[in-house]
Structures are given as C-alpha cells and as structure tokens.
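Got a spare moment? Tell me how you read both lines of this record:
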Amino acid sequence: MSKKKIKKLITKFILNLFFISIIFITLIPIFYAISVSLSETNSLVSSEFSLFHLDLSYNNYLELFKNYDIGLWFINSTILAVATLVFALGISIPAAYGFSRIKFKGRNSIFKTLILLNAFPTILSMFAIWRIMSTGPVVLVNTRIGLVIIYTGTMAIFGIMNMKGYFDTVPNEIEEAAKIDGASDFQVITKVLLPLAKPSIIVTGMMILIYVWNEYIFSITFMTGEENFTLAAGLYSLQANETSGSWPIFAAAALLTSIPVLIIFLLAQKHMVSGLTVGGVKA
C-alpha cells in the first residue's frame, strides 16, 4: 500500500474519530436525563448520583400516568399542534404563492410589514392580545380556539416567509409548460407546484409542530387549570426544587415529551433533504 493511501486512511480515521467524539459529547445530556429518569433516588446533583447505575427502575414513568395527568397534557398539545398546523399551512401556502407569483400593488410593503410583525417580541404583545381575547362578544381566554388563533397568526407569517423563498426558486417556465399541455391554474398549483414545494412544506410543518409542542408563555397565560395544561405547562409544574418535587419524575416527563417530535422528525427526514431538482424529476 502506498504512503499516499496510508495517509488518506489515517486522515479519514482521525476525522471519523473526531466526529464520533462530538456526537458522543452532544448525547451526554440525553444519557444523563435517561439515567435520572430511571433512578429511584432524588439525588440529581449529590455525590451519590451516577450516570451509569445498575438499579434501573421504570417506576418514575409509571407514576407519571398514575399520579399526574400527562395523558391529558399529551391530548391537549396534540389538538393544538394539529389544528395550528392545518390552519397555518392553509393560510401560508396560498399566501406565499400569491406573494411569489402575483404582482399586485403594495406587495413588497405588505411583505415587509409581515416581516416586522414577525420580528416584534411576543411578550410585548401579551397585554394587547389579552385585552382583545378577554373582551367583546366572544371571550377566547381559557379556550383552545383562542390559543390556536394565536399560534396560527404567529406561525402563518413564518410559513409565508419560508415558502415564498421556495416558490421564488421554481422557474416560471415549469408553469408555462404545464399550461401549454392543457393544465388549468388549479392543476398547475396542485399537481406541479405543490409537489415541487413538498420539502419546503414539510420543513415549515415541522417548525410549526415544534413551536406549538414547546410553546409555554401563551399556554400558561391564556389557559388555567391543570385539565387545560399543555405538555410545556405540565413540565413546568413538575419542576423540582430544594424542598419539593422529584427530578427523576421531571426527567421522565421531559423524555416522553420529546419522543413524538423525534419520531415525526425521523419520518420526515428523507423529505427534508430532498431538493427542487429531485421534485422536478419526479413530477
């Protein structure tokens, strides 16, 4: 074997070892949380705690379902996430296409205004949103519909900005060729553009789901009562301190909360890495 090949193998081995080390370091917090969730003692930071221990127990997970309403929290978060996903994509997809393809007066000004609104700190708008939702003929405080409206308004703007950039990369010639072949405007959108925009739609949908699943400020402000808790609000209520609470219970709940998003991400990963060229060939 030549010196050049040996040097190349050594370099490749060192790089692989480096990246494996980085992966292991980033996984340490997850291993730590798993170890805490399987621990029988509430000794998170004491000298007695060990990252790898033999006395593994699943009692903390069982206790979550016996003594806490984590199942109801899952249901609340799922309803909010799915409803927000449907409404936000239903608004942002046609709006993004309109901003990308239709030239109308004030288009740039409106789009810049949306960007400014999206950059506005959420916490500063809390009082105004509360006044709007708590007064008037329909009171939306402490209702799922109210939260869905807030989440949709927030994430629809993000979806418009994200997908408009993707629609801009789709050549107009693709639409013109479809129309020459006899496709109507509706068919061009549904059978040509949407398949091409599939990666962007999936990424946007993932971001919407993650945002709603982890959102905390609005959920505790506009929803009261343990029966209305989302997973984020429920996790906050499980936090332990020096005098009360259980860190193993909290770690178990945090891991269970992260599993659905992880599964969805793994299922959508192959679509997230596909690009415009692949979509064009498949179409």
Remarks:
- The chain has two domains: 3-60, 70-282.
